[in-house]
Amino acid sequence: MAYIYPAPGVANAQVILTLTDSAAVLAGNLVVPALQDITVNNSNDIFTWTQLDSGSKQNVATTATNSLDMNIVLDQTTFFGANAAAGTSVANVGIIGLSQAKTRVGFALYLGDTSAGTAGKTMSGNAYVTGLAPTVSADSPVWVSPITLTVDGGYTIA
User: What tens digit of pLDDT does each residue of 74-97 get?
Assistant: First the structure.
């Protein structure tokens, strides 16, 4: 078996999430640092009905809802942008700027590898940045935030 292991801190084996502007209005990309965890969701909706001639419900799969849910430790430059006033690149706008502007982003999630090589799979697509809720506490003295990438369409796997 070839297990995928996202070895933290190991080059070519770690999970990497990169964001771009789908419309190419903003230049460049933004590599999201300090990922704590990530969940890839692909949830098919089900239409259910009953019939008078059956004692069981009938089901048929419909469209899928796709999203990436994660938690990150906030990096000031990445979260707020390197130069939000300039607004000319994804890195300048930052994660919160992409969310506030409702920018449709392209994403590429490198899942890691089965060894220390670079043969791992990448999931990509288009999404909107949602679900930001930064928090800090005495038990967690750095700012952390959940982030959801609500996928517009399906995933592409390469």
Answer: 999 999 999 877 878 999 999 999
Sign of the alpha-carbon torsion through 114, 118, 123, 129 = positive
Q: On the CB side of 142, how many CA atoms lie within 13 Å of its CA?
A: 9
> What CA dihedral angle connects 84, 89, 95 and 100, to 10 degrees?
70
Q: Where are the domains of the chain?
A: 16-157
- Cα 54 to Cα 59, 92, 130: the distances in Å are 13, 59, 42
Determine the CATH number of domain 16-157.
2.40.30
pTM: predicted TM-score of the whole model, two decimal places: 0.85
What's the confidence (pLDDT) of residue 117? 63
Q: What are the residues whose beta carbons fall under 8 Å from the beta carbon of 126, sequence distance 6 or more?
A: 22, 104, 105, 106, 107, 151, 152, 153
